[in-house]
Every structure is written in structure tokens, then in C-alpha cells.
């Protein structure tokens, strides 16, 4: 870990980030010590142990020496201005960055004390354990039933049709969708409303019995009613799953999460109980962001 000899980074240096995603009234005088996060980034019952994580796209550093634990069965929200690295960091947790050729991830990333980036690791199995829900609902152009049954089929989770039927029904129930679709399971999923499609994608993730669900701005394409439904669902799901959510909405982070992590230009500035982050943040950058001074 680099905290013994932290690199001092002046934030005005990072033109490449600002060029892509302009951040208003960046407090330029604020110095962030690389690898130094204020608050409570570590947990006793860690599901993920992430240490000294760096991510680059070619020559551009997007994640700068971040260390964080994600606790079992917590809901942790990643917030911060556009381009600060929230999605990049989230995608490390189930190796979704693997498909980006110029993306290089270094550091120690462990799930249940096992290296996520071990060469021998089966990435398909990893992504079944660590499921993902994306910003835009992305159901397959198949029936509602087949969308949910797809994962269990390829992972061999059901031997008989009746087992598969049970998995589909249970997953749709957990996603709060069963009542709305039980009479039209053969209808095509792309004909559903956006909110229903997103809950279908959650059902699809749940169907392979994941331990963790990563959510990358899951409500940004939804109206307020559909958003409220997904947030209710997250509260129910948090009893069974560890949830990591990237959100642009501070209100959403405040409503759904136990802990909040504030990212800034690739640094993890602060991690604390959500209530503390929004009522008495420790770092001046967190305070500036949550009070709307920039971002
Ligand atoms: N595929 C990619 N290739 C090159 N650079 C990328 C790629 N994806 C992200 N980046 C860069 O990495 C940095 C972090 O981006 P990232 O999308 O992780 O930020 P974010 O905080 O999730 O942003 P937003 O809130 O706008 O979604 C940005 O400078 C971005 O331009």
C-alpha cells in the first residue's frame, strides 16, 4: 500500500478527465493524498477486499490507488462527479473491464479472500456470483420466461422443466414482477415498459443465485414511479445480497445505501455511513459535492 509515501496530486493536473466530463467549479486548491481515504473504508466482514487498485485506459489513469472493503450484505453507494471513475471501479468487481483492450487493472482484488483476477478464475462463474444490472434495461429479444431462464440453463442449475419453472417464478417474484407477467410469460420482453424491463433484468441477475449485485445507475432511464419500485426492491434484496450501486442521485444514495463512497477524479476521497456523509461529511470535497458546489 502506498499510504506510507503518498503521492501528492494537484487536481488541476487531470485535464484528460475534465476534457471528457467537465466538472464545474472544481476546488483546485484541494489536495488529495493518493491512496488516502478518510472515514471508514474497511469492514470486519468483508465480501470484497480491494487494495491499492489502479486502473488505466492506455496512458490515462482512471482509478488511483484505491483501497476499500465491501461488507457482506451491505448496500454501498458510489457517488461523485461525472468521469470520477465510479463505473470503472464497479466493473473491476466482476471483471467487466476485461473486454476493454486498453484497460489495465492492478492491485489486489479479492472476493471472499480469493483473487478475482487470478488467471485460473472462471470469469463466467465469477459473473454468476457477482451479477450486474446496467443503466439501460437490456433484456434479450426473447420471451419474458426465456430471459430469466437463460442463466440457469447455461449454468445447468435446473435438471427438469419444473425446476426451471420454479426458478423463473421465484426470480420474478423477488423482482416484484410476477403478478404483472405471470399470464404472459411467452410475450416478448422488449414489449414491456422500461421499469418492467429493468425489474426483468434484476430477475435475470437473481436467477443464477448471485451473492453480489452490481448496479450501474439502474434507475437513470426510469420514471419516478418505476424508480421507487426498484428502490423498494433493493431494500428487500439487501437481506439476501451484497449490493454495490453507482448513482448520480444523492437522494437515491441516501435512500438506499448503508454506506456511501465519494469518488473524485479517480480518488476515493471518503467512505462513511450514508447518514454521516450527507449530514456531516469529513472531507471538504465531499461537502462541496453534496452541497452542490460542483458536480
Ligand atoms: N472504455 C474507455 N476507454 C477509455 N477511457 C475510458 C473508458 N471508460 C471510461 N474511461 C475514462 O475513465 C474515466 C472514468 O470514467 P467512468 O465512466 O468510470 O466514470 P464515472 O464516474 O462512472 O462517470 P459517469 O458518472 O459520467 O458515468 C473517465 O475519464 C473516462 O473518460
TrEMBL record:
GO BP of this protein: phosphate ion transmembrane transport
Name of the gene encoding the protein in the UniProt record: pstB
Protein name (Swiss-Prot/TrEMBL): Phosphate ABC transporter ATP-binding protein
PROSITE patterns with a match to the protein in the record: ABC_TRANSPORTER_1, ABC_TRANSPORTER_2
EC number: 3.6.3.27
Record keywords, A-Z: ATP-binding, Hydrolase, Nucleotide-binding, Phosphate transport, Transport
Gene Ontology annotations for the cellular component aspect, listed alphabetically: membrane
Organism: Marinobacter salarius
Gene3D superfamilies assigned: P-loop containing nucleotide triphosphate hydrolases
GO molecular function term, any single one: ATP binding
Amino acid at each position: 500500500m502506498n499510504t506510507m509515501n503518498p503521492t501528492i496530486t494537484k487536481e488541476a493536473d487531470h485535464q484528460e478527465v475534465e476534457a471528457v466530463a467537465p466538472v464545474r467549479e472544481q476546488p483546485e486548491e484541494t489536495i488529495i493524498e493518493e491512496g488516502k481515504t478518510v472515514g471508514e473504508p474497511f469492514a470486519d466482514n468483508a465480501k470484497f477486499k480491494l487494495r491499492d487498485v489502479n486502473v488505466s485506459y492506455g496512458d490515462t489513469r482512471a482509478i488511483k490507488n484505491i483501497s476499500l472493503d465491501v461488507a457482506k450484505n451491505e448496500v454501498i453507494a458510489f457517488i461523485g462527479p461525472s468521469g470520477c471513475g465510479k463505473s470503472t471501479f464497479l466493473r473491476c468487481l466482476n471483471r467487466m473491464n476485461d473486454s476493454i483492450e486498453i484497460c489495465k487493472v492492478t492491485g489486489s482484488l479479492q472476493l471472499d479472500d480469493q483473487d478475482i483476477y487470478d488467471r485460473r478464475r472462471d470469469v463466467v462463474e465469477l459473473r454468476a456470483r457477482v451479477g450486474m444490472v446496467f443503466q439501460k434495461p437490456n433484456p434479450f429479444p426473447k420471451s419474458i420466461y426465456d430471459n430469466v431462464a437463460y442463466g440457469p440453463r447455461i449454468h445447468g442449475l435446473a435438471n427438469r422443466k419444473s425446476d426451471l419453472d420454479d426458478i423463473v417464478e421465484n426470480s420474478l417474484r423477488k423482482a416484484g414482477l410476477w403478478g404483472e407477467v405471470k399470464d404472459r410469460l411467452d410475450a416478448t420482453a422488449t414489449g414491456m415498459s422500461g421499469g418492467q424491463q429493468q425489474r426483468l433484468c434484476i430477475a435475470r441477475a437473481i436467477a443464477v443465485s448471485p451473492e453480489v449485485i452490481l448496479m450501474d445507475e439502474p434507475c437513470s432511464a426510469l420514471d419516478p414511479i418505476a424508480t421507487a419500485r426498484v428502490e423498494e426492491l433493493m431494500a428487500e434484496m439487501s437481506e439476501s445480497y451484497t449490493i454495490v450501486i453507482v448513482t448520480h442521485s444523492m437522494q437515491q444514495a441516501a435512500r438506499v445505501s448503508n454506506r456511501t463512497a465519494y469518488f473524485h477524479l479517480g480518488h476515493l476521497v471518503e467512505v462513511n455511513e450514508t447518514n454521516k456523509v450527507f449530514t456531516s461529511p469529513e472531507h471538504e470535497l465531499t461537502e462541496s459535492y453534496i452541497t452542490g458546489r460542483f458536480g
